[in-house]
From TrEMBL:
<comment type="pathway">
    <text>Lipid metabolism.</text>
</comment>
<dbReference type="Pfam" id="PF01467">
    <property type="entry name" value="CTP_transf_like"/>
</dbReference>
<feature type="region of interest" description="Disordered">
    <location>
        <begin position="1"/>
        <end position="32"/>
    </location>
</feature>
<keyword id="KW-0594">Phospholipid biosynthesis</keyword>
<keyword id="KW-0808">Transferase</keyword>
<keyword id="KW-0444">Lipid biosynthesis</keyword>
<feature type="compositionally biased region" description="Basic residues">
    <location>
        <begin position="1"/>
        <end position="11"/>
    </location>
</feature>
<dbReference type="InterPro" id="IPR044608">
    <property type="entry name" value="Ect1/PCYT2"/>
</dbReference>
<dbReference type="InterPro" id="IPR014729">
    <property type="entry name" value="Rossmann-like_a/b/a_fold"/>
</dbReference>
<dbReference type="GO" id="GO:0006646">
    <property type="term" value="P:phosphatidylethanolamine biosynthetic process"/>
</dbReference>
<dbReference type="GO" id="GO:0005737">
    <property type="term" value="C:cytoplasm"/>
</dbReference>
<dbReference type="InterPro" id="IPR041723">
    <property type="entry name" value="CCT"/>
</dbReference>
<dbReference type="GO" id="GO:0004306">
    <property type="term" value="F:ethanolamine-phosphate cytidylyltransferase activity"/>
</dbReference>
<keyword id="KW-0443">Lipid metabolism</keyword>
<comment type="pathway">
    <text>Phospholipid metabolism; phosphatidylethanolamine biosynthesis; phosphatidylethanolamine from ethanolamine: step 2/3.</text>
</comment>
<dbReference type="InterPro" id="IPR004821">
    <property type="entry name" value="Cyt_trans-like"/>
</dbReference>
<comment type="similarity">
    <text>Belongs to the cytidylyltransferase family.</text>
</comment>
Amino acid sequence: MIKNGHHHNHHQVNTAAGKDAGTTPGATACSPEKRRRRIRVWCDGCYDMVHYGHSNQLRQAKAMGDYLIVGVHTDSEISKHKGPPVFTQEERYKMVRAIKWVDEVVQGAPYVTTLETLDKYNCDFCVHGDDITLTVDGKDTYEEVKKSGRYRECKRTQGVSTTDLVGRMLLMTKAHHSNIVSITRFSLYELRSEYKAKLLLSAVLGHFRLSGVDLVCHGKTEIYPDKDGSDPYAEPRRKGILRTVDSGNSLTTDAIVQRIIKNRLLFEARNQKKEAKEIAVIQAMKRQEEEKTKERAQAVL
């Protein structure tokens, strides 16, 4: 298990606040009746090619409780049930851990969510989006927790999914992809303040408004000129506030595209397999609903 350190300070602040409110050393902050128990929430998934849809799901899940634990599946589990992931499990663990609503990451979480898993991590319930998640044999991965009443649903973010992103990349040429990435690399969903969002939005538009800005940072990847050949970082360079930041990771967007191109047939098969399973389940659910409607109509007659 991996815990996010930035939440630890928040807990200490709350504890300190309780002491300031008049508690004595060694005494509880309030009576058991008055003290609200912390609600522990479980989410799990592949979290491959982490995008704002994943982040939005975790944001909604965290709002349902106090402490969010996220289980991330292994490469072998994902390959078994839906096909090979684009990112390795170690990369996916790191990406999920970096999302600010996540308090703890469980590495190698089982693909099928069970009551045993929820109990193991003392979670009250699990949260998933309102989309279909199936095992390799077409069964609902949340069937057990749904039946037990320990399942909550959040709204799925429309218009984005890993399957869709992989499909788009398979259709794109490298040049086309590079043009799009220059804008989409600024994922504003994870920014912690409106100030940062405004700064990055200015950068995306190619216009640094540097009033009150002390530092502008860029990774170690190559800086490409704008369409007119100008340096997009000319202004911060002139002011002497441009700094290079080493992420400690050599992974680049081009490297991700190359992975997908290299395994093109596998990813195409994965997408087709996933879509076929979902269509089959939707059709089965539709047939069940039609049968129930007929039964209700006959009962009335």
